[in-house]
Design goal:
With 76 residues, the chain is mainly β. The chain has strands spanning 2-7, 10-15, 23-28, 34-40, 46-51, 61-66, 71-75. Strand 3 and strand 4 form a beta hairpin. The chain starts with a strand and ends with a strand.
Length: 76
């Protein structure tokens, strides 16, 4: 999983190399609280752009968990 800042309130999440479809994406605030969560069932790989309201990219982090339970934390 990779994150790339687009501008101060947008970022792109790219996930590649999935053996099984199913990824849980959590957007966390600066205190580690979940402010948005979604499940994506795209097989193999996907890219998605997220737009933030009332927050900047520097104020959030991501937790990406695949179907096998592997987790990666991303700090943008």
């Amino acid at each position: 999983a990779y994150g790339k800042v687009i501008d101060s309130d947008s970022f792109r999440l790219s996930v590649i190399g999935l053996d099984e479809p199913g990824v849980n994406v959590e957007v966390l605030d600066s205190r580690g609280r979940t402010i948005f969560e979604e499940s994506i069932t795209q097989p193999e790989a996907f890219t998605k752009v997220y737009h933030l309201k009332n927050l900047t990219v520097g104020e959030v982090s991501l937790r990406v968990t695949d179907a096998k339970g592997r987790t990666k934390n991303l700090y943008l």
